[in-house]
Design brief:
The protein has 817 residues and is an alpha/beta fold. It is built from 25 helices and 34 strands. The protein has five domains: 75 residues, Ubiquitin-like (UB roll) (Roll), CATH 3.10.20; 145 residues, Alpha-Beta Plaits (2-Layer Sandwich); 215 residues, Rossmann fold (3-Layer(aba) Sandwich), CATH 3.40.50.740; 191 residues, Dimethylsulfoxide Reductase, domain 2 (3-Layer(aba) Sandwich); 98 residues, Barwin-like endoglucanases, CATH 2.40.40. The protein is globular and about 85 Å long.
Length: 817
Amino acid sequence: MVTLTIDGKQITVPRTATIYEAAMQAGVEIPVLCYAKKLLPYGACRVCLVEVEQMKGRLIPSCTTPVTEGMIVRSSSAEINKVRKTVLEFLLVNHVLDCPVCDKAGECDLQDLAYDFDCCSNRFEGVKFDLPKDEVNPLIERNMNRCVLCGKCVRVCDEIVGYGSYSFINRGFETKIATAFDRGLNCEFCGQCVSMCPVGAILPRPFKFKARPWQLKEVDSVCGYCGNGCTVTFGVLKNKVETIRFNDKNGVNDGNLCVRGRFGYSFINSKDRLTQPLLRKNGQLVPATWDEALAAVATGLQQAQAAKGVGILAGARLTNEEFFLLKNLAKTLGTENIDHSGGECYKGVTEGLLATLGVTASTGTYPQVEDAEAILCIRSDFYETHPVFGMVVNQAVKRREANLFVISDKKGKFAKLPGAKTLLTKPGTEVNVLNAMAFVLLDENIAVTEGVEGIAELKAALAAYTPEAVEAQTGVDAELIRVSARRMVAAKCAAILLAYGVPYASQSREIAVAAANLALLTGIAGREGSGLYLCGEKANSQGAIDLGILPGSGALGSSAMLAGQVDALYVIAEDPLSVYPNRGALEAALKKIPFLVVQDIFLSPTAELAHVVLPATSYAEKDGTFTNAERRIQRVRPGVPSPGEAQADGAIFAQLDARLGGKIAYTGIEAIFAAIEPYREIDFSSIGAQGTVWGGENLSLSRRKVQAVQGQSPVDGLVLVTGSALYHNGTLSTHASGPNAVEHEAYLEFGREDAAALQVKEGEIVTLKGNGAEIKIKVKVGQRLPKGVLFAPYHFASAGLNRIWHGAAVTPVQVSK
């Protein structure tokens, strides 16, 4: 620690702090334009100049100067203010003065500073910039006439996002921020540059001319897409979410958002939202009152329970409190046939981790990954499923020089990071590679085995998984397998990352067990600063597991329920027909179910088959909590009222429970949360801006037992793999104009080698055949896929991909024009 004095205030701060950071801690305001707490110090704008007594009155930038013991700082004086005003005048020489039509007006840092320093005229003259605006893309507008060259957009894109869209070009007065070859912006459209820009040079196009910042009501909540649990701040005007506001003060994401979180909000305001209950009469879904609809549902469920039984299938976008009420409803009905999110995809957590570590959740927290020395990412799709967590990995590699290893069947964004190594394996053989790494640890006697059960049995089972044998099977270099294993065990702090979701259901348990084996043998599991992370696809995937939205012993899971083994099926916030595997069989089974109830915010293809449709609310209209992939419980708050007659899922469950004879009623979210058994030790009122992590920063393990799991033989020939695309999450994002503006339809991705061999070109329509079905789909050609591997995202219902994909990790296919 270091003690210094700022404007007469003595303060003690960490030795790594800058003068500016020390001033913030002391409550002393210093003006800045180029500083951002999540970016490395830069010192471009010179507005933050201060005087240090020990430097004989020389003015220095406070944002880049580290503190020293006994330093005496003056942050404001006549001379300092004169210099700051001069800097501002220089910035305003060429800056266009179009504040009345600039969307940044009212929250523009340059505008505020010009007012503070009375810059109502300028001693310097110059020609105003007249550069063309970049309006090529649908989400981000760039007007470099307003740029002050702070470099924040360049730095955030490089340091945090790891994309590198921007750079400084030219020199002197001609300097400007531009993309490669000064073309229109074409990137992953996360909008980080929008949030960092202190002026109106980079703006969100969907919000253009919608409102002034002072007109907006800001409501902090949690993103409703993936399991990362990012804080989002709704900008609300007239009961409509008009934008997502930048907020780096709350939550675990430091203000970082992906394209879905920042631009995927428009579905909330969609005119296609369900606004009233629908009841099937004479073969048609017609509007009904809530009383009619709930009466029909209660009667149908009671009759079914008396026959073959009732099944309940929920999506993982419900709050914890809604899951609790749903579980109560299931108890009232007397059924344990309850499941969520496709059933099989979460078995890596509920079965794999439970069998090896005795837990059903990730063992560490996100901030620990940023300080990791070594990271193993299983599947390159991890950045697509959890982009903001991927940004944490970017920082670990770029700032801490962490060793990054990626086991994947395709090259991804992580492969471009400095020093990253991709263990490019044949599709479906990830377990083989993980087993080979475990073999190396045991064979070279470098594994952590103290207190770990099953070592002898595992060692015997891994005899066939020598690096050389696995190289022959998977194509991954044997020496790279050895290096990866050695680096992971040698690291003091390390992380293993694995995403799960509907398209990754195949081998979910086996991959998780193999990853947990590695976590135990490297000492990662349960060690402070290290962790094994299994990250769910949906916003409350972890909450669904915590609340036990799982089939009871001997009860039916989603596969059995969707196969028609029940007389009534209640589907909530899920669209199986669009994205679950084997659509043909699924559609036939759903049509035969005597009584189908669907509760959703849109009339999905599954809802179109229902006997009763109940309109529910989106995450922007909910009150309660989500639990993210690092076990962090966070508050979900309503930003806008629900449309029409739509009701919160929890309110619907409570009404049904009462109609079916339920005896327990809860008053308010806090009372429901207090009744949730896994969270009984947590006080609802204590869940602050950063949330509350149950189980602590490092989750204690109740078991340390390695288990043998069998790898798979590779599939020869042309094969299809499916998964998530960066711009979408499930089917929800396909209703949002932001993500759809970038990627609005399904595609079949080819590597350049396969595209040339099959004579297909970008944008062409081809016929894809497999599993006795065929679809028409557009071609996309890229560089990340190895020969013989095709990829298609699973989000788009209209493409019918799940007619070909039946749930296997690898699907043999044929392509024709």
